[in-house]
Design brief:
mainly beta, binds iron/sulfur cluster, two-stranded antiparallel ribbon, single chain
């Protein structure tokens, strides 16, 4: 699967990462939060992340 130019990502530990470049290979991702009231960038998560293992 090739990179999705619309989704930049630097998380190479994720199995959906392009590896060659800093892009995701999924057609779409889901972004969510682990906080009740997110107020900072650190509060947001890519919920499509899967550990490459
Ligand atoms: S699923 Fe999320 S964390 Fe994984 S490569 Fe795509 S954008 Fe990055």
């Amino acid at each position: 699967m090739g990179k999705n130019s619309c989704i930049q990502c630097s998380i190479k530990e994720c199995k959906h990462h392009d590896m060659a470049e800093n892009y995701c290979t999924l057609n779409q991702i889901k972004v969510g939060t682990h906080e009740t009231h997110p107020t900072k960038i650190e509060c947001t998560d890519c919920e499509s992340f899967v550990f490459r293992g």
